[in-house]
C-alpha cells in the first residue's frame, strides 16, 4: 500500500536571513543511453529536467521555500519531489547561492529587499520519476538538452546556476563563467557526486 504524497503549504516554517526568503532547488538531470549518432560525448547524452511555472509559459528548475525543520539539501530534495515528481542523488555541495526577486516582484524597481530571495541550488541525478506527485496539476515536466535548457532559462541567475552545474560535473572548478556563455564547448566527465534523497 503506497502512502499519498502531499506538498507542504504555507510559510509558517519558512526560513529568512536578514529579511530575505531562503529557497532551495536543484537542476535535475539524467544520462541518455549511448547513441552512436551523438558521437558518445557526455554533453549530448545529458538531459535536464525543467518544469512549467504556474500561470506562465516559461520553464524553471524546481525550487521553493527552505523550512526550519530541514537542511538546505533536504529542502531541495523535497521541492524536486513536490514540483517535479523526481527522486535521486543530490550533490553534497550546493552549486552556489543567488539572490533574485520572486516572480511576483520581478517588475518592482524599488530598492527594498521585499520579495527578494536567497536561493541555493544543487545538482540532482534523477533515479526515479513518479507517475503522480503532489503538484502534478500545477507543473508539467519536460526533459531538454543542456543547450535547450540554456536557451530556456528566463533569468540570469538560472543561467549562472546551469553554468555552475556544468563546472561541477566537468570537474573544472577553475573554468571561468565567461567560457560558458555558449554551451557548444562544454565537456563532462561521468562521476557520482552526492547522496540519495
TrEMBL record:
It comes from the Eukaryota. The keyword Metal-binding applies. Residues 19-166 form the Nudix hydrolase domain. It is found in: Mitochondrion. The keyword Transit peptide applies. One of its GO terms (cellular component) is mitochondrion. This is Nudix hydrolase 13, mitochondrial-like. It comes from Iris pallida (Sweet iris).
Amino acid at each position: 500500500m503506497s502512502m499519498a504524497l502531499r506538498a507542504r503549504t504555507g510559510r509558517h516554517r519558512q526560513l529568512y536571513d536578514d529579511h530575505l526568503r531562503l529557497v532551495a532547488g536543484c537542476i535535475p538531470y539524467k544520462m541518455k543511453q549511448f547513441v552512436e549518432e551523438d558521437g558518445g560525448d557526455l554533453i549530448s547524452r545529458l538531459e535536464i529536467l525543467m518544469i512549467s511555472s504556474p500561470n506562465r509559459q516559461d520553464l524553471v528548475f524546481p525550487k521553493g521555500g527552505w523550512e526550519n525543520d530541514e537542511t538546505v539539501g533536504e529542502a531541495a530534495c523535497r521541492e524536486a519531489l513536490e514540483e517535479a515528481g523526481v527522486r535521486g542523488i543530490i550533490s553534497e555541495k550546493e552549486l552556489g547561492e543567488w539572490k533574485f526577486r520572486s516572480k511576483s516582484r520581478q517588475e518592482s524597481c524599488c530598492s527594498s529587499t521585499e520579495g527578494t530571495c536567497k536561493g541555493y541550488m544543487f545538482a540532482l541525478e534523477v533515479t526515479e520519476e513518479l507517475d503522480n506527485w503532489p503538484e502534478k496539476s500545477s507543473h508539467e515536466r519536460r526533459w531538454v538538452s543542456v543547450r535547450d535548457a540554456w536557451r530556456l532559462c528566463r533569468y540570469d541567475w538560472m543561467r549562472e546556476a546551469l553554468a555552475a552545474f556544468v563546472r561541477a560535473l566537468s570537474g573544472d572548478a577553475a573554468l571561468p563563467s565567461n567560457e560558458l556563455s555558449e554551451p557548444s564547448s562544454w565537456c563532462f566527465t561521468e562521476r557520482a557526486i552526492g547522496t540519495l534523497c
